[in-house]
Amino acid sequence: MKILRALLPSLLSAATLVSHAQATPSFPPSALKLMAGVPVVNDVYLNGQGPFCFVLDTGSQTNLIDTRLARKLELPLGDPLVLINPAGQTTLRAAKVKQLAVGGVQARDQEFLLTDFDGRSILPPDARGILGQEFLAHFDYLMDLQHRRFALSDPPRTGRRIGFSLIFGRMALQTNLGSLVLDSGASVLSLFRLSSGPSTAQLISASGQHVAVSVQAAPSLILGDSVYHLDRAQYLVVSDAQEAGLLPVNAFHAVYVSNSEHYVLINPQP
């Protein structure tokens, strides 16, 4: 049985792998909604069927799909996978989508993990799944939260480039708080360390697992040559994590991601 590693205490669980994506820059951007603090698009097509509502999550290695939708689409199932995250481990089935389209941009042979979303996670109520790095890592794109648009294969933007490394397929940025994974699926800053305060909240993963966290005022964040003041941070211990925590994309107006050159722009200009 295959074992996948995921360190995602915010919204998600995650997995892995490779696809063959094709994109055409002339396609218009998708309309972007913010629901429960995370970006959502409503124009996702799976094997020509849709449109469906999916969360965009840079903090997830893989894609996830609601089990009922996978059955409705009659997706072929693969072997069970063991998924490990801070809340523990769970076993999920994988399925293959031959063609995934968002805003007219297509990717082939995308892997999805099946999970039951209803009543088991804090995903937006209309969401039928999650698009993670399995899909997103094959494109340069603009995620503009201020103007509510998501543009795949977007032309390069101007701004100070911040290089990123990859931790389990996810983008990690170096900050004064350590190496933080840029996570559009996280609603608040997450720091993987002990807190002086008690556990005050429960996080729920998309696979239905719970983990206790302590929510406090956030420390100042230095990223590149800029200082950011976020409202809150949630603290939890993840003993073997390679990253120091998760940096929510919603801390910024917009983020441009260049996967082709491994850098991001925070609040970029055209």
Helix content: under 10%
Number of helices: 2
- Describe the main β-sheet briefly: 8 strands, mixed
Oligomer: single chain
Order of helices and strands: EEEEEEHEEEEHEEEEEEEEEEEEEEE
Strand content: over 45%
How would you characterize this protein structure?
Helix content is 4%, strand content 50%. It has two helices and 25 strands. It has helices spanning 67-72, 133-136; strands at residues 2-5, 20-22, 30-35, 38-46, 49-56, 63-66, 77-85, 88-102, 105-115, 129-131, 140-144, 149-152, 162-163, 165-167, 170-175, 178-183, 189-191, 201-204, 210-217, 221-223, 226-228, 232-235, 245-248, 254-258, 263-266. It has an eight-stranded mixed β-sheet with strand order 14-15-16-23-17-22-19-18, with no helix packed on it. The chain has a six-stranded mixed barrel with strand order 4-5-10-6-9-8. Strands 20-21 form a two-stranded antiparallel ribbon. The longest helix is centred in the N-terminal third of the chain and has 6 residues, at 67-72. The chain starts with a strand and ends with a strand. The relative contact order is 0.22.
Which features does this protein show?
270 residues, mainly beta, 2 helices, globular, disordered N terminus
Short description:
With 270 residues, the protein is mainly β. It has helices at 67-72, 133-136, and strands at residues 2-5, 20-22, 30-35, 38-46, 49-56, 63-66, 77-85, 88-102, 105-115, 129-131, 140-144, 149-152, 162-163, 165-167, 170-175, 178-183, 189-191, 201-204, 210-217, 221-223, 226-228, 232-235, 245-248, 254-258, 263-266. It starts with a strand and ends with a strand.
